[in-house]
Design goal:
It is a single chain. The protein is α/β, with parallel strands linked by helices. The protein folds into four domains: 147 residues, Alpha-D-Glucose-1,6-Bisphosphate, subunit A, domain 3 (Alpha-D-Glucose-1,6-Bisphosphate, Chain A, domain 3); 94 residues, Alpha-D-Glucose-1,6-Bisphosphate, subunit A, domain 3 (Alpha-D-Glucose-1,6-Bisphosphate, Chain A, domain 3, 3-Layer(aba) Sandwich); 107 residues, Alpha-D-Glucose-1,6-Bisphosphate, subunit A, domain 3 (Alpha-D-Glucose-1,6-Bisphosphate, Chain A, domain 3, 3-Layer(aba) Sandwich), CATH 3.40.120; 78 residues, TATA-Binding Protein (2-Layer Sandwich), CATH 3.30.310.50. The radius of gyration is 22 Å and the shape is globular. A hairpin with a 3-residue loop joins strand 5 and strand 6. Helices cover 36% and strands 22% of the residues. The strands form four sheets. Strands 1, 2, 3, 4, 5, 6 and 7 form a seven-stranded mixed β-sheet that branches. Strands 18, 19, 20, 21, 22 and 23 form a six-stranded antiparallel β-sheet that branches. It contains 14 helices and 23 strands. The relative contact order is 0.10. It starts with 13 loop residues before the first strand and ends with a helix. Keywords: Isomerase, Magnesium, Metal-binding, Phosphoprotein. One of its GO terms (biological process) is carbohydrate metabolic process. This is Phosphomannomutase/phosphoglucomutase. Its cofactor is Mg(2+). Pfam families: PGM_PMM_I, PGM_PMM_II, PGM_PMM_III, PGM_PMM_IV.
Length: 450
């Protein structure tokens, strides 16, 4: 039995503290198990800029070479760029070494199968976990010899791909503040922004895995303070922030105020539906009602999905949806391989602003119809008991179990679900008025928080 901490196998990826939970031995065994599980003949390997990513990357390459597969060695990469390379090379599988937005002490592996579909809970993670923990990984994968690692200028190819989806004429008279958070977008953005002639002010573009300025998690408002201050100081109309591996994005308006990703989803959905009537748009159980209303009012189909990167990727591809965003800032596009790209999202937003000549505040104002709590994190010993208690207490509402428990009433709704990454319950409430929102929040918390 391999001495690997079983807790590193999460619903979306493999992640833990380095080196006590995730280390070179784990990376080596996981790489071999992925090849064996998929019977892969070719695989893409890439890494982010964390100090621990380099030794983990070498361990992955060692495991892949022993399995005799064709290896595309990308080296430094964002997660979306890794997905691009998988499709560019038509590879059978991929391993991206990153802990995304987590603090520096963490690292992990994101696993993908052909065409860039994520491996997670219900789509192979359980089998890979069993394979790694059992140690049943002897033997090669049908190849012989010592396969070389194919290395190309994948950054050049990726920038060329992104540039081909847009035009410098789409971005006239734009100035934007950009916070790369010392993460992987700082490696890519200067190239694509230069080609598209977008004027920008860079903040924390240096690759620095310990994240000396702030956590590379744009979902937390405290990590947007420097960006907000810069937007106000320079009198820019928009600020954009990215997470550590470049697959999540956040925006602040000209007043430095964070913008809910729901408003970005609604805004872009309305725009896309003008050119592509009837498209499907995917949203999460935690998304505002304004998403479904906007999509359907403009002739589209709204599709609901449980929260989680891997689940969203699967749903977007299965439904052949054109677009979708989950609440944490992952946005998925049909023309980005049904996968998520933070840079792609930013470029669509900037193009819309340029086309309309409007400020982002004006573009999102029509969607500010409801009052939304955001995610309320609750530490709970017995999470299932709390959910069952609310299911019984609100039996008069329309209930759904797509992800945790959702209960809907005409003038308000709530969702409560267990976190897939932390020992928490996540509660979201939305109501037609601020007064009703506060009333229902107090009511629910009094029932389950003792």
């Amino acid at each position: 039995m391999a001495k690997i901490n079983p807790s590193v196998f999460k619903a979306y990826d493999i992640r833990g503290i380095y080196p006590s939970e995730i280390n070179e031995e784990a990376a080596y065994l996981i790489s071999k198990s992925l090849v064996k599980f998929l019977n892969a003949k070719s695989i893409v390997a890439a890494r982010d800029m964390r100090p621990s990513s380099a030794p983990l990357y070498e361990a992955v390459l060692k495991g892949l070479k022993e399995m005799g597969v064709k290896i595309f060695g990308v080296g430094l990469s964002s997660t979306p760029m890794h997905t691009f390379v998988m499709n560019f090379e038509n590879a059978d599988a991929g391993i991206m070494i990153t802990a995304s937005h987590n603090p520096p002490k963490y690292n992990g592996l994101k696993l993908e199968r052909k065409l860039g579909t994520s491996i997670g809970e219900g789509s192979g993670m359980e089998e890979i976990k069993e394979m790694v923990l059992s140690g049943k990984l002897d033997g090669e994968n049908g190849a012989v010899g010592n396969p070389e690692i194919i290395r190309k200028d994948y950054l050049k190819e990726y920038v060329k791909f992104l540039y081909g989806k847009f035009s410098s004429e789409d971005f006239s008279d734009l100035q934007v503040a950009v916070d790369a958070g010392n993460g992987m977008t700082g490696f890519i953005l200067p190239h694509i922004l230069k080609k598209l002639k977008i004027k920008y002010y860079p903040l924390y573009f240096e690759l620095d895995g310990p994240f000396p300025n702030h956590e590379a998690n744009p979902a937390k408002s405290e990590n947007l303070k420097d960006l907000s201050a810069l937007v106000i100081e320079k009198k820019f109309s928009l600020g954009v922030a990215f997470d550590g591996d470049g697959d999540r994005v956040a925006f602040v308006d000209g007043r430095g105020q964070p913008i809910s990703i729901d408003f970005i989803l609604a805004m872009l959905s309305k725009e896309f539906l003008k050119e592509k009537p009837g498209i499907k748009v995917v949203h999460s159980v935690s998304s505002s009602r304004i998403i479904k209303e906007t999509v359907e009012e403009n002739g589209g189909q709204a599709v609901i999905c449980r929260v989680g990167h891997a689940f969203f990727r699967r749903k977007v591809r299965e439904e052949k949806a054109y677009f979708g965003c989950e609440i944490s800032g992952h946005c998925f596009f049909e023309d980005f391989f049904y996968a998520d790209s933070a840079i792609f999202t930013m470029l669509h937003v900037l193009r819309l602003i340029s086309r309309t000549g409007k400020k982002i505040e004006d573009l999102i104002r029509p969607f500010k119809k409801y009052f939304h709590s955001g995610e309320i994190n609750l530490e709970m010993k017995d999470k299932l008991a709390a959910i069952n208690l609310l299911e019984s207490a609100y039996g008069s509402g329309f209930q759904s179990r797509i992800d945790g428990l959702t209960v809907e009433y005409p003038d308000w709704w709530f969702n409560i679900r267990p976190s897939n990454t932390e020992p928490l319950l996540r509660l979201t409430i939305e109501a037609n008025t601020q007064e009703l929102l506060q009333k229902k929040k107090k009511e629910i918390l009094e029932k389950i928080v003792k």
